[in-house]
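Project outcomes to date are best conveyed with an example. Our students and postdoctoral researchers have been running inverse folding experiments weekly, and each run begins with a structure described purely in tokens. The record below, which covers 253 residues, was selected by the lab manager from last quarter's runs and is presented without edits.
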């Protein structure tokens, strides 16, 4: 039997007196869209930061397609197919949209990347064009990223996360601050990302999101974090009916 896309065992991350992640166990199958929901400060970003390698756990294991990566550096995880977007979009505002994506692609391909390098060289243009097309950003490809609308910056941030062609994609609040139409576009984009146009398996997605309608529409399963612990995991229907979740998070009696 093939290994799950992601398996987390007994993960613990402490910040001083705060247990930001307190014994997290989680298994994601390949191709699953798995939402992490929970109140502010419940440990969602801390969890994906440890999956990506930005933070090191105090204890516990993180297996990506069967390999324990808990103490491997970010670039190794990136090569293994892990990619992430940021809660606060992290684009270079003075570079064009296409150059922002191109630097991501260059880094992923091990090509030179820095202020001294021309970003959009021939060896990356096809891949950049494909990523921009998928994100719906071709029309603004020559604009400085800092001039984009908030919604387009979010899409750009996700496109950059995809520049290494990850198979496990971690999205930290990609819908934050979006209006209704923009949310619909982003949901379509996330579904496309999962379907994965390149040959190979569907992508697996961890999605942190506060917009419950979007979470319920998009996710195969949902995990609810409260004070660093997963208090429930299940399908949207199961989570919607779970009394612990209704009490702890959805604000119902
Ligand atoms: N680098 C850090 N240093 C110290 N404490 C931190 C750090 N990062 C997070 N924390 C603390 O860990 C806890 C979990 O934070 P985290 O950012 O993971 O929450 P979150 O669920 O992503 O919240 P939000 O929905 O507001 O983004 C919080 O109490 C937070 O203050
Ligand atoms: Mg967060």
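After processing, the design step wrote out the following sequence:
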């Amino acid at each position: 039997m093939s290994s799950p896309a992601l398996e987390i065992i007994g993960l613990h991350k402490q910040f001083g007196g705060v247990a930001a992640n307190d014994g997290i166990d989680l298994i994601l199958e390949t191709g699953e869209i798995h939402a992490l929901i929970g109140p502010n400060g419940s440990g969602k970003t801390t969890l994906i930061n440890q999956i990506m390698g930005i933070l090191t756990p105090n204890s516990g294991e993180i297996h990506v397609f069967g390999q324990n990566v808990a103490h491997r550096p970010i670039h190794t995880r990136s090569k293994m197919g892990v990619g992430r977007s940021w809660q606060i979009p992290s684009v270079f505002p003075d570079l064009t949209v296409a150059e922002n994506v191109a630097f991501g692609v260059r880094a992923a391909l091990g090509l030179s990347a820095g202020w001294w390098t021309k970003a959009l060289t021939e060896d990356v243009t096809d891949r950049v064009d494909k990523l921009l097309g998928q994100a719906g950003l071709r029309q603004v490809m020559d604009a400085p990223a800092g001039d984009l609308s908030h919604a387009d910056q979010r899409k750009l941030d996700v496109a950059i996360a995809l520049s290494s062609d990850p198979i496990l994609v971690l999205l930290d609040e990609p819908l934050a601050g979006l209006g209704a139409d923009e949310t619909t576009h982003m949901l379509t984009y996330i579904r496309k990302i999962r379907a994965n146009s390149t040959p190979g398996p569907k992508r697996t997605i961890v999605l942190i999101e506060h917009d419950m309608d979007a979470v319920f529409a998009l996710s195969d399963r949902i995990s609810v974090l409260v004070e660093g612990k997963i208090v429930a995991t299940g399908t949207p229907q199961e989570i919607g009916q779970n009394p612990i979740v209704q009490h702890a998070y959805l604000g119902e009696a």
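Residues 6-91+148-248 form a domain with the Rossmann fold fold (CATH 3.40.50.300). The chain has a mean pLDDT of 91. The training component of this project remains on track.
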